[in-house]
Amino acid sequence: MAGTDSERTLMTGGPVIVLVEPQLGENIGMVARAMANFGLSELRLVKPRDGWPNERARAAASKADHVIDGVVVFETLAEAIQDLSFVFATTARERDGFKHVRGPVEAARILRTRYESGQKLGILFGREKFGLFNEEVSLADEIVTFPVNPAFASLNIAQAVLLMSYEWMKSGLESETQTAFATPEMEPASKVQLQSFFDHLETALEARGYFRPAAKKPKMVDNLRAVLTRPGFAEAELKVLRGVLSSLDYFSPKQPRGSGYPERKALADREAHEDGPAPLSERGKAEMEKRNIKNG
Question: Alpha carbon of 25 to those of 81, 127, 192, 195, 290: distances in Å?
């Protein structure tokens, strides 16, 4: 879904995303893209398998260069989170221990509250193949897990980051129904306008033999009105539909729109009589008769 706009202010900040021993540069890049989608900007890597920097990561980031350029690499997880005051560890597996387990919605709200109080936060994500070790989970304060199919619970690392980043963004909205742009405001059509439209439609359909057999016309009209009152048309929308009906009223296959223009009519005549001479006008017929009389 296209939507990148370089003229808008870039959202940054939020919790730090920490990837532990990520394997593929492409996955790191897709993580960066997911973070940028939802306003996160600080990415830390613990011992990336293929080293850093990684051009495949930059290519997969799809212009989330501010995230890629800010990546910091660490040798150990303990070093990567030492300046953070609260950390969630993500996992799909049940773990032994005494840590609180949260869903992504609740976890995002906790993070938002702590972030707004000035705390520096982090979310840990494990290796693509087998996630986080128990000793790595033990370094976190709490666990977050996603409601997924228990028989197929493995998420791609970028998908997991995307889900958590989305919940982070949503936790900062004024309401859960808030959207990036609003529905256009249009004046609703009045009952008088609707009735006028129905009358126009009925007349146009009647002229074209739509209501057959005639005995069923009342029921067919009722059905049409039931269908067309369901959308709740705006005034502007009715004008569009009335324009369609007006076009049907004034034009036909024999006289299409634009056929009144001389150059178009001449072209239509030529195309219609490609296999023989074009018909003579009344004036042309009179001239031909005069010539025949004179020659006779």
Answer: 22, 13, 63, 62, 90
